[in-house]
Design a protein that fits this description.
By secondary structure, the chain is of the alpha+beta class. 52% of the residues lie in helices and 21% in strands. The strands form three sheets. Strands 2-1-5-4-3 form a five-stranded antiparallel β-sheet. It has a five-stranded mixed β-sheet with strand order 7-9-10-12-11, with helices on one face. A two-stranded antiparallel ribbon has the order 6-8. α6 packs parallel to α12 and α7 crosses α9. The longest helix has 60 residues.
Length: 388
């Protein structure tokens, strides 16, 4: 009997032990998900912090401005770009104060509640800058209106380029219209009546001159177009810059003699060979010399120097011409820009010569600088690299 009881107690003890072990295993399994949840929550917290820092960095370094307003019109978020672009002051704490000073015709409530029926884009001027404002409402997690977001883009460069394009088209149209009108006028006059030989020759000379002017204009425009589209392949080589300048002077000697100009060319010793496109540099030198000849009065002086400084050879051309006003110096390399339009057209210029010269020098890693005083003359310095 005692043995049976002992066996029964042993069986019960083993069963209890098994139950305890199973219980412990269940507890362990139940606790594991909790630990995972805790770890997951920690990871989510870390992820949220990283995300916030990431967004903060983006807003800080964005070139476009961003401002967010709540339903009361108060600023709840603004980045440095927006503060700078709209010149926001500490007292500009709400929607109305910021945009009222720029006369922006927009109603915040209408933009939020009638978004589909109102314009969400505006353009304003802030000083010399042009800004585009994009207004968009945003909602909270319950899909209720929560405020309005404004994106500010600086479009100053786009506006400037668009104005240049319009001006360029207008200039081309005008430059082509003038010689065409002249050619048509003289041609119609010749066709309508009989004129003596001398008159006919004079008319034909005018037609020929205007036709050449048109051809030169078209050629210059094509050249600039090729530069813009990188279609010109610069075949560079080493050559003697002093010899090139002297050759250019000889080509223009007839024009120099017509105005009885005193022209001298000085080439310093030991000027290294330059490495550039020879034809392009020749065109630049001829253009600058031609301008000096055109705008220097009779019996004036033109001095040409060729030398070497550091790794660059230079050409310095100094004349006693009419000079260029200081306010025009910053624009003389613009296409079709002329200091004196009437005089330039009279002398056969297209207003593209200096633009082409600068393009050529840029392609050859060179540079051009111009200094001038009205009534005293002009100094042009061209630099060209001597090393490949």
């Amino acid at each position: 009997m005692l043995e049976k009881e002992m066996i029964m107690y042993c069986i019960i003890a083993v069963l209890l032990l098994i139950l305890i072990i199973i219980g412990i295993m269940i507890l362990i399994k139940l606790r594991k998900p909790k630990r995972k949840l805790i770890k997951g929550a920690e990871k989510n917290t870390v992820s949220e912090d990283v995300e916030k820092q990431y967004l903060k960095t983006i807003l800080l370094h964005m070139t476009d401005g961003i401002i967010a307003f709540n339903m009361e019109g108060r600023i709840i978020l603004v980045n440095p770009a927006a503060t700078r672009q709209l010149r926001i002051l500490p007292e500009d704490e709400n929607f109305e104060k910021i945009f009222k000073k720029y006369d922006v015709d927009i109603n915040m409530e209408k933009q939020i509640y009638l978004e589909n029926w109102t314009s969400s884009e505006k353009r304003i001027n802030v000083g010399d800058n042009y800004l585009k404002l994009l207004f968009a409402s945003f909602k909270d997690e319950k899909d209720r209106p929560a405020g309005i977001m404004v994106l500010i883009q600086d479009i100053t460069e786009h506006v400037r380029l668009d104005n240049m394009r319009k001006e360029f088209v207008a200039d081309v149209s005008h430059e082509l219209k003038t010689p065409i009108t002249s050619i048509m006028g003289y041609a119609d006059t010749l066709a309508e009546g009989e004129y003596d030989k001398e008159t006919q020759t004079n008319f034909l000379n005018v037609i020929s001159t205007e036709a050449r002017r048109m051809a030169k204009l078209v050629t210059d425009l094509l050249t600039l177009s090729k530069f813009d589209n990188n279609e010109i392949k610069e075949e560079k080589s080493e050559f003697d810059l002093g010899n090139l300048v002297k050759e250019c002077q000889k080509k223009l000697q007839l024009e120099i003699d017509k105005k009885n100009l005193q022209t001298e060319c000085f080439v310093t010793a030991n000027v290294p060979l330059v490495y550039a496109n020879k034809d392009g540099i020749e065109r630049v030198v001829l253009n600058i010399l031609t301008n000096s000849i055109k705008y220097t009065p009779e019996n004036g002086k033109i001095k040409i120097y060729v030398g070497f400084v550091y790794n660059d050879a230079y050409i310095k051309i100094i004349d006693t011409g009419l000079g260029i006003p200081e306010e025009d110096l910053s624009r003389i390399f613009e296409r079709f820009y002329r200091v004196d339009k009437a005089r330039t057209r009279e002398l056969g210029g297209t207003g593209l010569g200096l633009s082409i010269a600068k393009e050529i020098l840029d392609k050859n890693n060179g540079s051009i600088d111009i200094k001038s005083v009205v009534g005293e003359g002009t100094e042009v310095v061209i630099r060209i690299p001597t090393k490949e």
